[in-house]
Amino acid sequence: MHDVGLLPRERAYIVAVTKKGVDPDVVKEHLDELVLLLDTAGANVVGRLTQERDRPDLSTALGKGKVQELKEIITESPVEMVVFDDELSPAQVRNLEEELGVKVLDRSGVILDIFAAHARSVEARTQVELAQLEYLLPRLTRMWTHLSKQFGGIGTKGPGETQIETDRRMYRTRMQRLREKLREIDTQRLVQRKGREGLPRYALVGYTNAGKSSLMRQITQADVFVQDRLFATLDTTVRSIEMPSGQRALISDTVGFIRKLPPQLVASFRSTLAETLEADVLLHVVDLSNPHYRDHMAVVDETLKTLGAADTPQIVVFNKIDLIDDPHMINDAEADVPNCVFVSAERGLNISRLLQRMQETFEESAIMRTVHIPYEDMKAVARIYEDVEVLHREDTDTDIRLSVRVASDKLPLFMSRYQKFMTADAPPTSSPS
Ligand SMILES: Nc1nc2c(ncn2[C@@H]2O[C@H](COP(=O)(O)OP(=O)(O)OP(=O)(O)O)[C@@H](O)[C@H]2O)c(=O)[nH]1
Ligand SMILES: [Mg+2]
């Protein structure tokens, strides 16, 4: 793992407040993942504490007794921060910081820090900064400094109360500017995307560190950034590939998912994820060598659902089979997942089988597209009803918007007739369900 900050590594104590009766193994695994996240963010975990409760205490998440216990622990062996695995309300953060006298963060805060440190492109930096400000605004306390892009929340000291008020105002102005900037970037992106209409589109999705970028590199033979760390990729890249049939297609690689991905991040990364959301087929990459791969799959499916991509046809790509010795594991995985392929992105195993499957899945799937037809062109509206299945129609002030389902073998014909109605502000949609 890699340090991302320039400051000396900080010490952290981690806390989980769980419901009564939750499997201790699950709690342990979640905390292990938090340790990994903190490691990536540049902090060492020196201890952990868990409390079972019916529900988290409204003012301090932990019960009063546990807060005192924690306070004693961190007085004896000092830490710079206490990190909760679950989302804390701004009030809980304030109360806990007052009680404990150190910075208090939650998992979302840590993930935001990592994103801030890894963001490279203008778009990713803008998106992360906006998400950070949205997260921080209600949480500004003495312990937080005004936002430093390099360091995020970890490795910083706090300003005074008047500074906080000034900061709040500054944040709001800044957020406004960031939103405008993202809108501009979005417009450029739509123009770029327009040029690629008509080709089959595949998108790699999956838990962070599953091997999406490695697979992208293997399939496209391009030099893609791969690293054994969480959230190595924060931008979407799109490349053109040749399918076994000789047809050209597009494949995209994007940011990975994780449990409890902060909603602020999901919201501000929506345009980065647009490429994924509009894909005809999703390649759900799973690290089969991770003992918790099933949980990871559930998290990815859940995230796709929030993003509205749950109905896109999916191939589950079980990766890292070079690390699997037990053939039962392959059988078990296969039994539960109807459309899956086993590969090793690193060794290049079964890649042609995967490409074949991608082509088949695309051919079996119907493709969703949206067209905007002006009222002057009612003939085209009539014809489109004959050509394809119209799923949704909206008559707006300026035009008629139709969401249609096109059989994949009809796509070339459809494009030749209707591409002109797929304007830059009419991105294809996924199936309205
Ligand atoms: N043994 C083995 N390791 C692999 C394989 N595929 C990927 N890896 C390793 O897994 C780690 C993560 O790979 P990435 O391709 O960066 O994963 P990612 O899904 O793009 O991760 P993020 O961008 O961080 O979400 C790297 O250390 C890869 O070398 C594989 O087939 N076998
Ligand atoms: Mg990646």
What does this 3D model show about the protein?
By secondary structure, the protein is an alpha/beta fold. The chain folds into three domains: 1-190, GTPase HflX, N-terminal domain (Rossmann fold), CATH 3.40.50; 201-364, Rossmann fold; 366-421, Alpha-Beta Plaits. It is built from 14 helices and 13 strands. It has helices at 24-41, 64-76, 90-100, 107-118, 122-136, 161-194, 212-220, 263-268, 270-277, 293-306, 327-336, 351-364, 378-387, 411-418; strands spanning 10-19, 43-53, 81-84, 103-106, 201-206, 237-242, 248-253, 281-287, 314-319, 340-342, 366-374, 389-395, 399-407. The strands form three sheets. The chain has a six-stranded mixed sheet, with helices on both faces. The chain has a four-stranded parallel sheet with strand order 2-1-3-4, with helices on both faces. The longest helix is centred in the middle third of the chain and has 34 residues, at 161-194. The chain is globular, with a radius of gyration of 24 Å. The two termini are 41 Å apart. The relative contact order is 0.09. The model is unreliable at 1-6, 145-152 and 424-433 (pLDDT under 50). The structure holds guanosine-5'-triphosphate and magnesium ion.
